[in-house]
């Protein structure tokens, strides 16, 4: 990546950590205001990184949930008598 994307991605990671620790979602709007006032390119890179990282986190959580549900089906004894 270029410097813009690298810096924006690091900022997005830091913001996600901050949100996880505090629950303060307002920080995203505040960051957008600051970045947009100084560099539209940085703002767009930040938003892209933030969206991609959050989407990835949600997708991983869904995959983990599905894997756990599947594992439970394997661990449950079969119902209904003898196997065919």
Structure in words:
- The protein contains three helices and no strands.
- The longest helix is centred in the last third of the chain and has 36 residues, at 40-75.
- It has 84 residues and is mainly alpha-helical.
- The chain is 82% helix and 0% strand.
- α1 packs across α3 (40-75).
- It has helices at 3-22, 26-38, 40-75.
- The mean pLDDT is 93.
- It has one domain (3-63).
Query: What number is the mean pLDDT?
Result: 93
* Silhouette: elongated
Spell the H/E element sequence: HHH
Structural class: mainly alpha
Oligomer: single chain
DSSP helix count? 3
Task: Please give the domain count.
Answer: 1
- Terminal Cα span: 56 Å
Brief description of this entry?
The chain has helices spanning 3-22, 26-38, 40-75. It is mainly α. It starts with a helix and ends in a 9-residue tail after the last helix.
